[in-house]
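If it is no trouble, can you show me the amino acids of a protein and the tokens describing how it folds?
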Amino acid sequence: MKLNVRIVLLAAVMILTGHVMSAQTMSKEELIYLTSDWKGERFPDGRPKIPDDLLERAKNIGIEDAWATLNNEGYHCQFDRGWKMVHDDVPVVGRALTASFMPSRPDVQQKIMDRGKKEGRKGNSNSWPIDMLSKGDVYVADGMGKIAEGTLIGDNLGNSIYAKSGNGVIFDASARDLEGLSAIAGFNAFVRDWDPSYLKDEVLMGLNTPIHIGRAIVMPGDLVLAKKEGVLFIPAHLAEKVILTAEFIGLRDTFGIQMLKEGTYATGEIDNQWTDKIKEAFLKWLDKNPGKLPMTRAKLDEYMKARTW
């Protein structure tokens, strides 16, 4: 059974059992339950709120290093590739706010729009997730991979998104107005393609619910790490561990490359399990280069005690 179908069935069950505030939005209680491994602060709607300092540090870690940690933890369905971007050198990093779109049908769409109006929502349903964005959020949408008439935003909505979140978007769908989006300084969009058409025959069926993006599952509040290689969705409760591990690997690589360039150690020594002598040289190198540490030295020392290297 496809994931979209499962989500619809789950939504139907939650409606019947009173666990949903509306057909589009998962209840706070259900969201907290599904993300209960997260023990930190949350948004009023229950979404995990990864601290801002971790978001900043995540901008400097590599996709491969972060992916390796998730893979070792048993999280094998968190990455997807094959994107087109506004800029290939502007990462998109932040907390996921999710949306799921499906093909429209008049009776369902009318009921959704009627209820949305009663709830105070404005405009077409593709603008509703945008109205919920806060600083540091990343709007992540499953648009069924639709290209023609699957354009979830153009430059007007792109400007609104950036004004609210200071961030970009990840769409398993298309977007329009590439030239206009390119003019938004700091904004980036990861989409399947670009198309001049307008959005048509789609309706919002899930808002802040679990979604899938290609071969990845995304939960509201996940840490989004989007770079040229692709997009990685890191569960909130693993964000700090993934970031710290990736930062440590980055420090090891920086030290190792310097040692290779200087001819201090052979390739086979660096690209292998380190000897005690190399470990000691690495620790001395850290002492001489405190400015290279993205974390506190105390946090790094604590991490290294538990690591086998």
